[in-house]
Specification:
It is a single chain. This protein has 20 helices and 14 strands. It has an eight-stranded mixed beta sheet, sandwiched between helices. Strands 3-2-1-4-5-6 form a six-stranded mixed beta sheet, sandwiched between helices. Helix 9 crosses helix 12, helix 10 packs parallel to helix 15 and helix 17 runs antiparallel to helix 20. The two termini are 50 Å apart. About 1% of the residues have low confidence.
Length: 551
């Protein structure tokens, strides 16, 4: 089976599709990958990829630009600019023809939920079967399975996403065949590039030192970037207490961060910001004992190369969903009630989360990993001024990436809520029993009574029951006025779920459940709708009961 995988995401997310590719390969698929052309070199790091097809996005975008300016018309009016869409269409046709010649595929799976990727998937597929995210022959959006539906919903409500993105890629692409711990290992840099970078570091290292700690200064968003002055203070501690040389990593666009680091640091260091290609970056990481950095593609690259990671998650970032896909990595979050903040919202606290974790705290964790081989929670002066949640990555019993608390935060309201969601949603999407002795087990700190149910949960539950009763009545009456009321009731139930951030992660799952059957076919019969509403109602009730006492 030849499978074409589409992933039009950035560097880090592209690397996180490695586990999905490994699952497909393990199940007998030859996999080709369509990616954005500027990330083709990153795709080359993904093992089990038989062919890489970089999408010529620059050419396609240029074809949609306006043609050059024309002279003013005789009536003094400017002519309407004409688009060169025909050039884009020709380029896209050439891309498809070349792809089919290079890799005749039997099916296509798209891991990018955006509309452009869905349309591209349908165009490339022709009459071949599609999975993941695509549009049907009538142009309506389709989520290929229930996991894909939840993936899309959780991408909109990231604050309550209990699954690592790599695992959502796996389940979207491979479904039930994605079992056991995922494989995240990336291709190692070749011996030649390793030797070249090793020699380069030897020449630049002070006093012939050859032990390095990599520091990734940048992030995709400044709000998610630990302050440069903190990195510089950490570098001082690293050099003074461990003798390791700080090694600055980053892109050309992050050179200014390295310059700021150099102005603030009091120690010798090596600056490779903007001075490596991707293979040289991989080699620099492999020659480092550990990476300290923000939630970035470099973090995922280090994890895929087996390099220990100490990562910080600020603003909207959280280790539950975008943490490194490797066991025994250490993830830090600010222990603030507002973290993680919601996407698209301005910070009312002057980004205080960026300054909540102090360099001494990082240094204590880092030194324990270097000297003891394990992460040890800081004590004494190292804790002063830091408000930190510390998580260690591990695979759970079902093979999903999870985090365990080193700082005692596993009983916090947020952690318990995510744990409950994790168990319930996995059982729901895997068509497992939600009730009885075989239902999902909840953590001890989850509540078991109806007290404290929130208004949104009560309202949604009541509307779901009304929807079920109306569907049952319409079934008995053969349609009529009751049938006409169903869409309005369905919309009210959906809006009730969306209105509460703690329930919003379930909203799109509600859409998928009540509009599609088990095989992702539209629900036409009222009996199917009734069963779907009943099943979703049990999911909502179980969640609300399990989290009723949480604040």
């Amino acid at each position: 089976m030849n499978t074409l995988l589409v992933n039009l995401t950035r560097f880090g997310d592209l690397l996180q599709s490695r586990a999905a590719i490994a699952d497909l390969a393990r199940n007998g698929h030859r996999v080709a990958l369509v990616c954005l052309e500027n990330f083709a070199s990153a795709a080359e790091l993904l093992p089990d990829t038989a062919h890489i097809a970089p999408l010529p996005s620059a050419v396609l975008s240029a074809g949609l630009a306006s043609e050059q300016t024309y002279p003013i018309r005789g009536d003094g009016q400017l002519p309407l600019p004409r688009k060169q869409w025909h050039k884009s269409l020709a380029a896209l046709g050439g891309f498809r023809a070349g792809l089919e010649d290079a890799f005749p595929f039997d099916r296509i799976c798209n891991l990018t939920p955006g509309l452009a990727a869905r349309l591209l998937t349908r165009y490339l597929a022709g009459t071949r079967p599609c999975s993941g995210f695509f549009v049907d022959e009538h142009g309506f959006g389709v989520n290929g399975n229930s996991w894909a539906a939840f993936f899309m919903g959780s991408s909109l409500e990231r604050g309550l996403s209990p699954f690592n993105v790599a695992d959502l890629f796996r389940k979207t692409a491979a479904g039930d065949s994605a079992t056991g711990p995922g494989v995240a290992s990336l291709l190692e840099p070749g011996e030649a590039v390793l030797n070249a970078v090793r020699e380069r570091l030897r020449k630049e290292a002070p006093d012939g030192k050859c032990s390095f700690i990599a520091l990734q200064l940048g992030a995709s968003d400044d709000r998610r970037r630990w302050p440069v002055e903190y990195f510089a203070a950490l570098g001082d501690i690293i050099q003074h207490r461990t003798g390791r040389v700080p090694l600055l990593l980053g892109s050309e666009a992050e050179r200014h961060l390295a310059a700021s680091y150099a102005a603030k640091a009091r120690h010798p260091h090596i600056n490779l910001c903007g001075r490596t290609d991707l293979r040289e970056l991989s080699a620099a990481l492999r020659l480092s004992e550990l990476l300290v950095g923000n939630d970035t593609g470099t973090m995922h690259l280090a994890a895929g190369l087996g390099v220990p990671v100490l990562a910080v998650f600020l603003a909207t970032a959280q280790p539950f969903d975008t943490g490194p896909y490797r066991e025994d990595c250490c993830c830090l979050e600010p222990d603030l009630p507002c973290h993680p903040c919601r996407f698209g919202k301005n910070c009312p606290h002057d980004l205080q989360c960026r300054y909540a974790l102090k360099p001494e705290f990082f240094a204590s964790l880092l030194i324990s990993r270097l000297h003891e081989g394990r992460w040890i929670l800081p004590e004494g002066e190292a804790v002063t001024g830091s408000a930190a949640r510390v998580w260690i990555t591990r695979f759970d019993a079902q093979g999903f990436m999870d985090v365990t608390s080193l700082s005692g935060h596993e009983k916090s309201s947020r952690a318990v809520r995510l744990s409950v969601l994790r168990r319930l949603i996995r059982a729901f999407l895997n068509e497992e029993d939600l009730d009885g002795e075989h239902g999902p087990a909840f953590p001890d700190s989850a509540a078991s009574g109806p007290q404290g149910k929130k208004d949104a949960g009560l309202r949604a539950a009541a509307l779901l029951e009304l929807l079920r009763q109306q569907a049952a009545l319409a079934l008995r009456q053969g349609g009529g006025a009751t049938l006409a009321r169903l869409p309005a009731t369905w919309r009210k139930a959906h809006d009730a779920l969306r209105s509460d951030p703690e329930l919003a992660a379930l909203a799109l799952l509600f859409v998928q459940t009540t509009q599609c059957g088990r095989a992702n076919e539209p629900v036409h019969e009222l009996t199917s709708l009734i069963r779907s509403v009943q099943r979703f109602s049990r999911l909502l009730d179980s969640y609300v009961r399990a989290t009723a006492m949480l604040t």
